[in-house]
């Protein structure tokens, strides 16, 4: 997507949606964990002629308790992440709380 008012060679600040892949083979999800999405988009400064449609985040190697940080994301070198803290998580695999099945005692 290129904006008509952006000159070639100029840079724009854009929010790029985050898309997760590898959920079908994620060990943490197969053990009953849940993918908790913390960031749904990331703000980048990028060339007007090469704005990405999405940022893919691979979760196929995550186990329960694992997370992916901003600094772990691999993107084109022309993109500059506009975040002051690259140690913030994008997502994590969390354990579902065990339901109590014990009857209440009076």
Account of the 3D structure:
InterPro entries: Ribosomal_bL25/Gln-tRNA_synth, Ribosomal_bL25_b-dom, Ribosomal_bL25_C, Ribosomal_uL5_bac-type. GO terms for molecular function: 5S rRNA binding; structural constituent of ribosome. This is Large ribosomal subunit protein bL25 beta domain-containing protein. Residues 12-95 form the Large ribosomal subunit protein bL25 beta domain. This protein is mainly β and 106 residues long. Helices cover 4% and strands 35% of the residues. It is built from 1 helix and 7 strands, in the order βαββββββ. It is elongated and about 50 Å long. The mean pLDDT is 87.
Note the topology.
Blueprint: E1 11-21, H1 27-30, E2 34-37, E3 41-47, E4 55-58, E5 67-69, E6 80-81, E7 89-94
Parallel strand pairs: 1-4
Antiparallel strand pairs: 1-3, 2-7, 3-6, 5-7
Beta-strand portion reads 25-35%
Largest sheet: 4 strands, mixed
The stretches of 5 or more residues where confidence is low (pLDDT under 50) are none
The termini sit apart by 64 Å
Total helix count? 1
Rounded to an integer in angstroms, the radius of gyration calculated over CA atoms is 19 Å
- Tally the beta strands: 7
* Strand order of the biggest β-sheet: 4-1-3-6
Q: On the 0-100 scale, what is the average pLDDT?
A: 87
Backbone shape: elongated
What structural class do helix, strand and pairing data support?
Answer: mainly beta
In sequence order, what are the helices and strands, one letter per element? EHEEEEEE
What is the helix fraction of residues, given as a range?
under 10%
């Amino acid at each position: 997507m290129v904006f008509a008012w952006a000159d070639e060679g100029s840079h724009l600040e854009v929010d790029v949606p985050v898309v997760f892949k590898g959920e079908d083979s994620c060990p943490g999800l197969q053990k009953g964990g849940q993918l908790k999405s913390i960031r749904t988009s990331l703000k980048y400064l990028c060339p007007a002629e090469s704005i990405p449609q999405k940022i893919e985040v691979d979760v196929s190697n995550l186990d329960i308790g694992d997370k992916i940080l901003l600094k772990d994301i691999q993107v084109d070198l022309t993109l500059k992440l506009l975040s002051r803290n690259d140690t913030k998580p994008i997502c994590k695999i969390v354990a579902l709380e065990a339901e109590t099945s014990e009857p209440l005692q009076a």
